[in-house]
TrEMBL record:
PANTHER family: DIPHOSPHOINOSITOL POLYPHOSPHATE PHOSPHOHYDROLASE, DIPHOSPHOINOSITOL-POLYPHOSPHATE DIPHOSPHATASE. Keywords: Hydrolase, Magnesium, Metal-binding. InterPro entries: DDP-like_NUDIX (IPR047198), NUDIX_hydrolase-like_dom_sf (IPR015797), NUDIX_hydrolase_dom (IPR000086). Residues 154-175 are annotated as: Disordered. This is NUDIX hydrolase. It holds the Pfam family NUDIX. Its cofactor is Mg(2+). GO terms for molecular function: hydrolase activity. Residues 13-143 form the Nudix hydrolase domain.
Amino acid sequence: MARSGAKKRKDVERQVAALPVRLSPGGGLEVLLVTSRETRRWVIPKGNPIKGLKRFEAAAVEAEEEAGVHGKIMPDPYRRFDYWKRRRDRFQFCRVDVFLLLVREEEDDWKERGQRHRAWTSPRQAFDLVLEPGLQSIFAELARDGHVAELLASDEAARRRPEAQARLSAETGNA
């Protein structure tokens, strides 16, 4: 019987991550990186699934707690990556589902502000800053993926539409 490359391992720790994205003032795609608490490496907000929440909702909670950002989280994983997590006495194999977060709001103060730094950067710069090869491959692909920038532009236009309609109604007296 042929063995599948997607074999399910019992010793795999499943995690969720948010990939916060936005358009720069010049229209280029930017991603938000945060530092890890212990090693201070550049990563994306990530953690374990949260009981009672869907995986994408848990990823949004991680983004809020670790980076202080809110927005529209996509319900389907954008990509997935694997890495080895260092524990005190061993290494743990982890598989991370990455969900796009179209950032709409950035807090000045957030839960883990004193423990992390955050930085907006291009996907190409993010590729150079992160150490996990799986995460690097996501940034390399993101740099070539015009769909994400289109998604952001569409989301921005949809959010501004009600504001523009309200402004027009006020100006014309058709409130």
